[in-house]
């Protein structure tokens, strides 16, 4: 996700394990990175955004509202819930279900 802050990532092709010696145990692919003129996150906010994502993805099977600590953002639980409903339209959402543009928007709303 951090890479997608700086560039649009496209899959170019798959690379067979037989293209390597010795053959790896994982599949490979070639990616293309088209850099954005301006990153989606301000450079001075990048470390905070990484910490935010780390907390959000801390427990993969939990709902986002349970992973994000209201006290981390100096908010009450009710304020956090209000922002999540406003930005994500639900409290029953997991971190992996949220697209990057909503992560950026949510980050700046909570910051």
Describe what you observe in this structure.
The chain is an alpha+beta fold and 111 residues long. The protein folds into 2 domains: 33 residues, no CATH class; 68 residues, rRNA adenine dimethylase, C-terminal domain (Helicase, Ruva Protein, domain 3), CATH 1.10.8. It contains 5 helices and 2 strands; from the N terminus they run αββαααα. A two-stranded antiparallel sheet has the order 1-2. The chain starts with a helix and ends with a helix. The mean pLDDT is 92.
Q: What is the topological layout?
A:
Blueprint: H1 3-6, E1 7-15, E2 28-35, H2 46-56, H3 64-67, H4 77-88, H5 100-110
Antiparallel strand pairs: 1-2
Task: Describe the structure concisely.
By secondary structure, the chain is α+β, with helices and mostly antiparallel strands.
CATH architecture tag of the largest domain: Orthogonal Bundle
Q: By helix and strand content, what is the structural category? A: alpha+beta
Oligomer: single chain
Reading the helices and strands in chain order gives HEEHHHH
Total strand count, please?
2
Identify the overall geometry.
Answer: elongated
Provide the β-strand percentage band.
15-25%
Largest sheet: 2 strands, antiparallel
Attribute tags:
single chain; 111 residues; alpha+beta; Helicase, Ruva Protein, domain 3; two-stranded antiparallel ribbon; elongated
């Amino acid at each position: 996700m951090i890479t997608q802050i700086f560039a649009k990532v496209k899959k170019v092709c798959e690379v067979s394990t037989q293209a390597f010696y010795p053959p790896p145990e994982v599949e490979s692919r070639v990616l293309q990175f088209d850099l954005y003129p301006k990153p989606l996150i301000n450079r001075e906010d990048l470390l905070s955004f990484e910490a935010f994502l780390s907390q959000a993805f801390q427990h993969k099977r939990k709902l986002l509202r349970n992973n994000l600590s209201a006290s981390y953002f100096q908010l009450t639980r009710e304020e956090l819930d209000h922002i999540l409903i406003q930005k994500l339209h639900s409290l029953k959402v997991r971190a992996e279900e949220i697209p990057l543009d909503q992560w950026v928007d949510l980050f700046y709303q909570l910051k």
